Amino acid sequence: MIKINNVLILAGTHGNELSGIYIDKLIRENVYNVQRSTFTSSSKLVNLKAIECATRYIETDLNREFSSKENDEIANSHEKLLSHKFIAENVQQDDQGNNQLLIDLHNTTSNMGATLILLSNDPFYKKMGAYVKQQMPEANILFEDEKSWEKQAYLCTAAKFGVMIEVGAQAHGSLQHSTLLLMQKMLSAVLDYVEQSNLNELDSLKDYDAFYFTEEVAIPLDQDGLRNAMVHPAICGKDFEVVKQGEPLLITLQGEEIVRVDAPETYPHFINESAYCKKHIAMALADKRLVVIE
Ligand SMILES: [Zn+2]
Q1: Counted domains in the chain
Q2: Which whole number is the average pLDDT over 265-276?
């Protein structure tokens, strides 16, 4: 059995995603309680310079700087240096018997509601998804477990255990009450899960439907790097709703439907995420599968 002894709640990894930044404020002011009996917990703002500038990042995306392999756009970017500093100052070494969980809080401009992103299909995470889904039937559980833990570039993988909470739709730089409450609800459910798991009191978890990331959909560009197409209007705002075989994902500027689904069904999410603007990514796709709790 895994016993987590420290939880570090992170916000401002992206400096313009405000829900987490204000949850951190509520935690520091003792308005929102993250204490439980079986582990220590605290919160931290990560990219202070990006928060001050109200921008996602200064030079490179901090949430892509934690892979063990070096393939940096800018070798010594503000965020690359910050990633080293973050690990040195905050990550507990597991060879000393520490089991630290990082919970990284994010917003999306996509209509994804409260989504728990799990980067491993191990029983600890499958059960976390089950517990959160039971407390919060409206939650989406998204597994992005196609890479090993070491190859994951997300900040929350800097420690032995980590998850992301992604809540939207909320425009970056804005703060909505409903989004703040959804994020608090999911964060509380994750903390309660860790407490129950530590106490070995998880005995009534049920199987549930979850999404498994498959691929990203690139927007086709012309010779000048401008877009030839956009998200099809039939799926705008419909994150995690099924798109069936033969149905289109994109539409050209001239109104021609393109990029049809060839699998029996797929589940788009991060639809029209504004942070993916520079990369010209229209959306990500997932399969829906039943997660069986053993
Ligand atoms: Zn983010």
Answers
A1: 2
A2: 97
